[in-house]
Design a protein that fits this description.
This protein has 136 residues and is an alpha+beta fold. It has a single domain, classed as Lipocalin. Helix content is 18%, strand content 42%. The protein contains 2 helices and 8 strands, in the order ααββββββββ. Strands 1-2-3-4-5-6-7-8 form an 8-stranded antiparallel beta barrel. Strand 7 and strand 8 form a beta hairpin. The N and C termini lie far apart (57 Å).
């Protein structure tokens, strides 16, 4: 019985071992830009669901929109992370480690895989803008 439980625990651990950072490198700026430029992505959190939408423009520029705000920003690669600087907090970058999942992107805040990841999926809506945005 103990051997069976040990084998079961080992088998369940295999997928997690396959997802180690060495086997799942973060996207470079070039790869991230290729996957996002010209697209609008819905941002989901495993706990909250859909919580924002971001349009990725040329020149590493973005427009982020959620229920509270609509702001412009830029992004750049810093080490192994993609860091966003938004106009409302220009000195407080928000950094993520992004990973290609084939049709969508997974991200961990500051590259910390113990946090709840976000998922970026291509939006069914077109580009967003802040014109006329009143919030909720």
């Amino acid at each position: 019985m103990r051997l069976g439980l040990a084998l079961l625990a080992f088998a369940l651990a295999l997928p997690a071992a396959a997802e180690t950072p060495a086997n799942d490198p973060p996207l470079s700026a070039k790869a991230f830009d290729a996957l996002t430029r010209g697209k609008t992505m819905d941002t989901h959190d495993a706990e909250l669901g859909l919580y924002g939408v971001e349009t990725f423009l040329s020149g590493q520029r973005v427009i982020w929109r959620d229920s509270d705000r609509c702001i412009h920003g830029t992004w750049e690669q810093v080490g192994a992370q993609i860091c966003f600087q938004y106009e409302d907090k220009p000195d407080d970058p928000v950094c993520w480690s992004y990973h290609d999942r084939g049709g969508w992107i997974m991200g961990w805040f500051q590259g910390d895989r113990t946090t709840v990841p976000i998922m970026l999926y291509p939006s069914k809506d077109g580009p967003i803008g802040c014109e006329g945005f009143l919030g909720v």
